[in-house]
């Protein structure tokens, strides 16, 4: 039985590496900066609006909060695998279009190193995704022209993290990330008149870089009431890699190389309350300071990214005989000010989902359905419906059987 889950983890990890190079989005907004950001939140918490910084429990791996790894049971091995399907409706003055994308969201694992004092987690997941293809036509001075935009790729991250309980109510943790991937953008300008030369600009960015995240949680239980306050922090760091830009004017060509790229300072906090392992209410605030980050050798071209989340989970009776009583029922909402887009407009997401426990173990099948309305960019409106399904395996491995 143990070997089976090891084989599943190895196969899933092998599948995820090439999946990081596939397109998980078709949004035109992914052509800006490094692409569309991924939140890397476990599916159990996505249904709760994406709250995670103050969440601490033994039934979920929470890679976005490294201080949470010591919440795992001292005898358990955990493995979480998630996949999603995304349906998006695009609309502007020219009409409407639907697009469907699928993606392997993440593969993570977690286990204790020393009882509940030290916990370890590792996994692989996307950092950004890019995938778009669209064009516009117009005229200037009586000359008709067309511009086509095409892009693909993304940045994937592999992480490993440790968490330490330094007191009965304080946990500290840190994640180490290796980021890798490739992003390609191409912009082609053509004129209907052969006497007028167009241009072809091609940008390629190859990333191989490291970064760190630090987390802390304060937690305590008063009878049936439990509270957890958590926070995370990342320094602004240089993004190592190679960048090449070619510009061909159908007469001359220009090649530009640059390494002016960074990832932002990131910080946030969250608070959760739990009553008798039945009702959980949580809220989060998360921020990335993109406005002073070097991107393509310039600063001030991006906005600060902020996210406010609120979520609730209810379980009628963890030990109930009726299956519906043992299910997790989750709802949530979040509001995001993306690092690209028009100032003052925000993305809004509402979510709902279930946690379906298996009868013979602590393993959960977590389902989440999210509706997102994205802030319009250049009069383009996006409405998204995303279904994510994850299997969170939780098995007792580290114990001695009595003879």
Secondary structure class reads mainly beta
Helix amount: under 10%
Q: Could you give the order of strands across the largest sheet? A: 2-3-4-5-6-7-8-13-14-15-16-17-18-19
Ranges where pLDDT stays below 50 over 5 or more residues in a row are 17-21
Instruction: Give the CATH level 1 class.
Output: Mainly Beta
Extended strand count: 19
User: What CATH architecture label applies?
Assistant: Beta Barrel
Distance between the termini: 20 Å
Give the count of structural domains.
Answer: 1
Q: How is the CATH topology named? A: Porin
Count, helices? 3
Structural features, described:
The chain is mainly β. The chain has a single domain (2-23, 40-122, 156-172, 215-242, 260-396), classed as Porin. 6% of the residues lie in helices and 61% in strands. The strands form 2 sheets. A 14-stranded antiparallel β-barrel has the order 2-3-4-5-6-7-8-13-14-15-16-17-18-19. The protein has a two-stranded antiparallel sheet with strand order 9-12. β18 (364-377) and β19 form a beta hairpin. Mean pLDDT is 86; it is low at 17-21.
């Amino acid at each position: 039985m143990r070997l089976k889950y090891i084989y599943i983890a190895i196969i899933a990890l092998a599948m995820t590496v090439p999946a990081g190079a596939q397109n998980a989005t078709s949004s035109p907004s992914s052509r800006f900066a490094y692409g569309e950001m991924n939140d890397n939140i476990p599916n159990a918490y996505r249904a709760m609006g994406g709250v995670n910084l103050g969440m601490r429990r033994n039934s979920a791996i929470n890679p976005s909060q490294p201080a949470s790894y010591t919440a795992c049971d001292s005898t358990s091995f955990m493995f979480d695998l998630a996949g999603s399907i995304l349906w998006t409706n695009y609309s502007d003055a020219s009409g409407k279009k639907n697009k469907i994308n699928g993606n392997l969201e993440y593969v993570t694992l977690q286990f204790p190193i020393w009882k509940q004092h030290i916990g370890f987690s590792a996994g692989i997941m996307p950092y950004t995704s890019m995938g778009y293809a669209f064009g516009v036509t117009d005229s200037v001075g009586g000359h008709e022209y067309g511009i086509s935009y095409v892009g693909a790729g993304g940045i994937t991250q592999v992480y490993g993290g440790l968490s330490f309980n330094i007191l009965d109510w304080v946990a500290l943790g840190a994640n180490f990330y290796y980021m890798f991937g490739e992003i390609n953008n191409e912009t082609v300008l053509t004129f209907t008149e052969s006497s007028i030369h167009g241009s072809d600009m091609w940008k390629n960015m190859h990333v191989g870089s490291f970064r760190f995240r630090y987390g802390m949680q304060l937690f305590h239980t008063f009878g049936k009431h439990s509270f957890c306050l958590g926070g995370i922090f990342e320094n602004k760091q240089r993004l190592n890699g190679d960048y090449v830009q070619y510009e061909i004017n159908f007469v001359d060509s220009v090649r530009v190389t640059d390494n002016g790229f960074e990832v932002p300072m990131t910080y946030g906090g969250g608070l959760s309350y739990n009553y008798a392992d039945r009702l959980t209410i949580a809220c989060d605030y998360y921020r990335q300071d993109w406005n002073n980050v070097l991107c393509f050798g310039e600063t001030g071209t991006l906005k600060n990214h902020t996210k406010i989340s609120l979520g609730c989970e209810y379980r009628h009776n963890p030990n109930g005989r009726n299956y519906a009583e043992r299910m997790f029922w989750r709802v949530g909402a979040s509001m995001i000010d993306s690092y690209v887009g028009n100032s003052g407009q925000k993305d809004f997401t509402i979510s709902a989902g279930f946690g379906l426990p298996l009868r013979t173990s602590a393993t959960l099948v977590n389902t989440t359905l999210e509706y997102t309305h994205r802030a319009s960019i250049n009069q383009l409106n996006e409405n998204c419906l995303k279904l994510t399904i994850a299997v969170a395996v939780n098995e007792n491995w580290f114990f001695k059987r009595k003879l």
